[in-house]
Each structure stands twice: as structure tokens, then as C-alpha cells.
Amino acid sequence: MPTWVDTHCHLDASEFDADRAAVVARARAAGVARLVLPAVQVANFDTVRELAHAWDGVYALGIHPLYVDRAADDDLDRLRQAVQAQRADARLVAVGEIGLDHFVPGLDRERQQRFYLAQLEIAREAGLPVILHLRRSADALLHGLRRVAVPGGIVHAFNGSEVQAGHFIARGLKLGFGGAMTHERALQIRRLAAALPADALVLETDAPDIPPQWLYRSAQQRAEGQVSRNEPGELPRIARTLAALRGWTLEHTAAVTGANARAALPRLMP
User: Fold this and answer.
1) Which residues neighbour 249 within 8 Å (Cβ) at sequence distance 6 or greater?
2) CB of 193 within 8 A of CB of 201?
3) Any idea where the domains of the chain sit in the sequence?
4) Which of 43, 78, 175, 217 is the most buried (most CB within 10 A)?
5) Quick check: 99 and 78 in contact, CB under 8 A?
């Protein structure tokens, strides 16, 4: 059975509180050998670290752009201190999830930008790659990377253009593809998954979010109580979509995306 790396999974999310052990067991049974757990705010730094150690995963520390409006001004100092304190922990693989979100209305873009650049600086100081959040913000993210060079990383849930993809790749970043790629109407994402260089692609679930097509529920269905929770155990089925788009076998897909994940996150254990 092929083995997989889920390069983006929020195992600490409250959606998993009732059955987290079973979720991990299902992922392991499906061949998902490694989970990357990115933090989203200072309050969950300890949680993702403890979960990574408890479940043989790895983790990243960062402040997500959707959380910067509620973050304290000294949270950047707390992130720097946490990264320095855990620098010797082999399970700390990146600074993330950080980035810019220009999709959600009402967010303070100036504050997002300040936190983003500061966290790039922290990653550069620590010699760690980054895990980037991108929503309608590719050019702004690239502008930041030109100002503050970092040692590679992953652009999570990539949804930019092919030209933008090329710029990220040229800066040593890999591009994450997950549940969105499985939706037949996601034509641009599917085109990118099929056409981008093979060594640029990594797989992810973003569990419990971005459910694949077979788990998707409309707003009305969710209001009626139907669940659309994503899980890391869905990764092999998501991978089948990438394999079909590329004309690859599952074994080749696992080998390529696994090698790419290790190239993006050099501290990722085998």
C-alpha cells in the first residue's frame, strides 16, 4: 500500500475533540504516514506541539491571517520566543500557517501585512521554511517573499494562476493540492494540478476543512445537520484525483508527492 504525507491537517480543531484517536487510526490504516499540524494562533502552539508528539506527527508555529485581528501586539514576540525555544525539537518543521487573506471581507489588510512580513523574518532567522495561506493574495505574498527571502516551504491550497505558481516555484516553494481539486467544477485548480511541474506538487487535506467532492454538503444540507467534516484519512482518495489528472499510478503519486513534501520541509521525518 502506498504511504502518504498530509502536509496540512488541523488535528487540534474542535471538530476532532470527540474522536481524535479514531481519526488518526483511520489515517494510519489508509497509509497516511505523516501529518503536518500547523498552528493558527499563539493559544494553540502548545496543543499542536503536544499532538505532534502524541501521534507521531510534525508541527509548525505561526499566526494565521484570519487570526491577526484578534492577536495581541506582542504575539509576534511570543512566536519568536516559541520558535527559539522549540528550535531543537525535530518535530518543528516550519513557521506557519501564515500569509494573507484578501477574500474574507472586513479584515485589516495592513495588520495582516505587518504580521506576515514579521513572521517571514522569524522564519528566516530560524532557518525554517514557511507554510503559507493564500486566498486572492498571491501577488502580495510574492511581494513579501521578495522582501524577506525564506528557505522554501509550501503554499497551502494553491489557487493562483500558472504564472504566479511559477514565481512561487522559482522561490523554492511547493504547492499544496487537496479537496478542492476533486470538484469537477474547479477547472483552474485541476488544470494546474495536471500541468505544473511534477516536483512542485504536495498533497494535503486541510482537515477538517476543504472537504473533497464526496463529502461536500451545501449550506442547506449543513443547516439540516448533515456533516461535511474532512479527515486526513481521505488523502489517498484525494490522491486518486491527482493520479488521474497526471496519468500516474497511485504508487508513483505517493512517491513523487512524498519526496516533494520532504524537500519542502527538510525536517520532515521519513
Assistant:
1) 243
2) yes
3) 4-264
4) 175
5) no
Distance CA 31, CA 116 (A): 34
Inform me whether the pLDDT recorded for 2 exceeds 80.
yes
**Which CATH architecture best describes the domain 4-264?**
Alpha-Beta Barrel (3.20)
Contact 233, 214 (CB under 8 A): no
List pLDDT tens digits, range 77-106. Answer: 999 999 999 999 999 999 999 999 999 999
3-state DSSP of the chain: CCCEEECCECCCCHHHCCCHHHHHHHHHHCCEEEEEEECCCHHHHHHHHHHHHHCCCEEEECCCHHHHHHCCCCHHHHHHHHHHHCCCCCCEEEEEEEEEECCCCCCCHHHHHHHHHHHHHHHHHHCCCEEEEEECCHHHHHHHHHHCCCCCEEEECCCCCHHHHHHHHHCCEEEEECHHHHCCCCHHHHHHHHHCCHHHEEECCCECCCCCHHHCCCHHHHHCCCCCCCCHHHHHHHHHHHHHHHCCCHHHHHHHHHHHHHHHCCCCCC
Give Cα 62 to chain centroid, integer Å.
Answer: 12
Amino acid symbol at 99:
G
Share of the chain above pLDDT 70, in %: 97
pLDDT grade, residue 225 (50/70/90)?
A: low
Dihedrals phi, psi of 211, to nearest 5 degrees:
-65, 145
Question: Which residue pairs, CB below 8 angstroms and at least 24 apart, start in 23-29?
Answer: 23/207, 23/231, 23/232, 23/233, 24/55, 24/232, 26/231, 26/233, 27/231, 27/232, 27/233, 27/235, 29/233
Beta-carbon contacts of 185 under 8 Å, excluding residues fewer than 6 positions away, are none
